[in-house]
# Entry
Amino acid sequence: MDEQQLIERYIDLDTDRYPGGRADARLREYGVPVWALIGQLRALSGDVDQVASDYELPREAVEAALAYYRSNKEYIDARLLLNSA
# Structure
């Protein structure tokens, strides 16, 4: 599955309903914010399998979060920066 297909399958793209818009996008079936997964990936040196295990998610869902992050990096990075302040 390519990145766009992963995003369409796992990411809730109706971000208008989230206070932070694209910065607060979530996994569709799991409700986990993309920014939380990216933060955990950073803490674990990019270990996708460990993050998937920690959040009890399929590996593909974490890969979808990464794909979404690559397309919306400035929004997610800003969200993570706000969390660290």
